From TrEMBL, chain A:
This is Miro domain protein. It comes from Pyrobaculum calidifontis (strain DSM 21063 / JCM 11548 / VA1). CDD domains: Ras_like_GTPase. GO terms for molecular function: GTP binding. Residues 6-115 form the G domain. The lineage of its organism: Archaea, Thermoproteota, Thermoprotei, Thermoproteales, Thermoproteaceae. Gene3D superfamilies: P-loop containing nucleotide triphosphate hydrolases (3.40.50.300).
UniProtKB/TrEMBL annotation, chain B:
It comes from the Archaea. This is Uncharacterized protein.
Amino acid sequence: MKRYSAAVLGVGGVGKTTYIYRLLGLSLRPRTTLRPGLYRLYLNDREIDLVDVPGQAALEVARNFARTWTFYVDLMIYMYDLTDQATLYAIAEIHSALLDRGIQPYKNVVLVGNKRDLAEELGIFIEGDEIATAIGAQKIYYISALKDHISALYKPVEEVLP
Amino acid sequence: MIPRGDILRGVRDTPLVALLLEFEELKPSPKLRPLLELLAELGVLAKRGDAYVKADARPPTGEKSALSEAIGVVLHQLVVPHLASGATATRLTPELKQSLYIYTSIFQTLRIVAAQELLRYGGLTLVAGWFPCGFSSELMSISGRDVVIVEEREDLLTLEIDRLSLLPLAAAPVEEGLAPASFYSFEVMPLGEVSQLVDKYGKFDTAIVCGRGVDIDAVRRAAEEVYYIHIGDKALSTLNSLVLKSLGLQPPTDEAPKAPRRGNLDGFEIYIW
């Protein structure tokens, strides 16, 4: 079995924990994440440790990721809210905080726009192409962590990890 | 909440079980009886008088899950040798350790739901017995708890220590209600002695015991409130007892504890003091 680690980063309220819960088969409205959490996902022949980072401390955590030389994940999932441009711009900020030390503590990176269902309902859809290019994301996914079928939610993880 | 299909497949595909199922009828010997009881609980066998006959429980088909594979390894490498010789495993192979770790994923949903639905924010929490339920980082991230994890076997605890090293550190700004950094500590000691930890950490706000046999009074002396989680699902409970005994750990008794409050989480009974 191949072992991987993945971290989900983004500001508060974009749906990081909801997304992780759904990956684990849980349809549970999460509490606010207060501290970094660790969840394990078994996906085909992969064992993936998912690091859930509290949104209110995302910048701080990113800076500390950068300072911790040993920290390294196979996949960084940057998540933003498709109805809120500020959450997309925050990704750029988090990303630059992460690279402060001039090292890249991840092997692969994807950008995930969440709350697609809400974006469609409101008619506000903030596309992430520019930021994706800026952060070097291999792919962009637009998802509804609440409503999408689980197979769609697996894609950001399974299409990028070898 | 309990992945019964994965458990059934993992058990049924074990070489010894596959061989046993070649027989039309099985008469239990003392050594074999616990395994046959497990198969009966899973619906693979049915009890007919003194004997067991094949029943029709069919595991899910398709690709075998990581959990099924792990349960197969745990039965084959740990439980069957224990049943055959009565000895407990002193050294665990890397494959077995990995499989025992995966085994704890049976309880991941329970851990999340319990941390979210039962526990209030904050406080120092004692996990009295890390294996099999694996309560750990969920308590920190979901309930904002500081956590001390106690286990009797160091080799089991190491599995979790390695994993928690993945968690990022972060500064703790004064204005934050709870620091994004976590506090966790590990202790290797008999569960019956957890009250001694009070001298080191102070009295715990909460203690969690899950799927383990403990002296509840000793745990109650260490914590203001105690959550004792009993595996209500008979098949999982039987499997769990076999795994614990094979590791030389104390399985829980079948008897329900007398607690002032109790609740249920799909297949698990929770007793609260």
